[in-house]
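ingest -> validate -> predict -> emit
validate: passed (alphabet ok, no gaps, 120 aa)
predict: started
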Amino acid sequence: MDSYALIQVLAAFEQAELFEGLMWDVFAWATADCEEITDDDVPVLQQALRDLQVTKEEYYLPELFVARKRHLRPQKPFYKGMTPATAALFDACCTEAERAEFDRKDREFWLSVAHRARPR
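emit:
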């Protein structure tokens, strides 16, 4: 990432008044959700900030950016306390069917982990 793009990323997080970046269990259970921000991602990040400024919920910037980059809605519990306008921004990231398919694969993964960990 060049220095200009880095400054744009830091400015977006400052405008959202976000000084921490860890997200836990937003997209999948038992994970720390992280996403690399590249030069090409800066416009997506800036648009997410502009959209959240309209809803006055800029603190969702990291999660909305990741949702848009992954084309994936967060898990349902994440929506608790969110305004309908902000929820609509997340819902636009993928369809309910796409989210359901991701959840199915996530469940299958954790079941296979549990199966392998079970004492024999």
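Helices lie at 3-15, 42-55, 61-70, 84-91, 96-117.
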